[in-house]
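REVIEWER CHECKLIST
Item 1: Sequence provided? yes
Item 2: Single chain? yes
Item 3: Sequence as submitted:
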Amino acid sequence: MAMDGAGRQRRYMERLRGGKPAVRYRRPQDRRSRAKRWADALEELREIAAAAREQRDNMPPGIAESAHGEELDAFASQAEGWLDGAPEYPER
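Item 4: Structure as written out by the authors:
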């Protein structure tokens, strides 16, 4: 059952009275350039597509011809199509 507003407020006030400081972690800022992030994303997609192809190639024939094998083929083909049409990010 979902907690109502009064329950959330009660939990919040108990946490404040507990005296323990709230620890909140901030994500480190990504300092790579947009072009570098784009190149890294394309490389990661290449690696994922290659891993899907490798997994498909290493399957036993019965499983490779199943729906799972066909899905891996379809994904790898689609990813390669995206990569073929993906422009390189222009440097400024």
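Item 5: Key structural point noted by reviewer: Residues 31-86 form one domain.
Item 6: Recommendation: ____
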